[in-house]
Design a protein that fits this description.
The protein is mainly alpha-helical and 283 residues long. The protein has helices at residues 8-36, 58-64, 67-100, 106-116, 125-135, 141-166, 169-177, 182-193, 195-211, 214-219, 228-233, 247-267, 269-277. 28% of the residues are buried.
């Protein structure tokens, strides 16, 4: 009987497909890197140059010396970090109740939480704008933290609920037998077991808040309150150039703000993998 896995043609086609997928995924990042180290005179040449003839780091020097861009990095760090901590803190409590306790209306609440992730952000933009103005939070980082919870918290609650449901109830019952309260059981027994799920959902919430653009554009006004996506979209050259868009500096800024996400993913890759596969098999 012929083994399909040992067929040279099948293996060759498989590797070609994998290579095509990798090129499709990595080429935009490579092009941004190539543009960030290319002089302005080489950005739009004909024929296209896939490798810069005279690589330079001037774009990075100008970006990292831009005070408004550095402030945008700080703003994004504060907003994304606060949103992640709040979403995890509230999400753990909500998902613990939904995942470990049986009560009337539990299923309806879960579907309501899930439905919150289905609405496009722009659908509730007007209502959020009125709420932000009423609370006096317009043009502040607090407005972004509050509105970003709209799309991070439902996702966090839904995902963490599945983790709690997958945990054996014998662990919780043993803690109760030893005299632990529900709060002690959550904090000292279940929460350490939830670490992969916390890392996975926390990182995804952080990335979503880090990359958000629409609410940052709608609820901030002055340059000192901008987050990274808005700062890059409104980037202006430091050294003249009239109305010319500084593509090289924009690509350098894109690379700078992408590196932290890559580093976080590489650091927590094992826990992320464990979190994505947790609950796949029960037993």
């Amino acid at each position: 009987m012929t083994k399909t896995r040992g067929n040279p043609i099948t293996r060759t086609l498989f590797y070609i497909l994998v290579a095509a997928i990798l090129i499709y995924i990595l080429f935009p990042f490579y092009w941004a890197l190539r543009s960030s180290i290319s002089p302005n005179s080489e950005l739009f040449t004909t024929p296209v140059r896939y490798f810069p003839a005279n690589p330079t780091l001037d774009n990075y020097r100008q970006v990292l010396s831009n005070g408004l861009f550095l402030r945008a990095i700080l703003n994004s760090t504060i907003v994304a970090g606060s949103v992640t901590l709040l979403a995890l803190g509230i999400g753990v409590l909500g998902s613990y109740a939904l995942g470990r306790f049986k009560f009337s209306g539990r299923t309806q609440i879960l579907y309501l939480v899930l439905s919150m992730t289905m609405f496009p952000q722009i659908a509730i933009l007007g209502a959020l704008y009125n709420m932000i103005n009423t609370l006096g939070l317009y043009n502040s980082l607090g407005a972004l933290i509050l509105t970003y919870m709209i799309f991070t918290l439902p996702f966090t609650v839904w995902v963490l609920t599945t983790f709690f449901e997958a945990m054996p109830r014998e662990i919780e019952e043993a803690a109760y037998v030893d005299g632990a309260t529900p709060w002690q059981t959550l904090m000292k027994v279940l929460l350490p077991l939830l670490a992969p799920g916390l890392v996975t959902t926390g990182l995804l919430a952080f990335i979503a808040a880090w990359n958000e653009f629409l609410y940052a554009l709608s609820f901030t006004q002055t340059p000192d309150k901008r987050t990274i996506p808005l700062a890059i979209a409104t980037f202006t050259p430091l050294t003249g150039g009239g109305f010319e868009i500084p593509w090289g500096q924009m690509m350098a800024a894109t690379i700078v703000v992408t590196i932290p996400l890559i580093v976080l993913t590489l650091i927590f890759q094992r826990r992320i993998l464990a979190g994505l596969t947790a609950g796949a098999v029960k037993g």
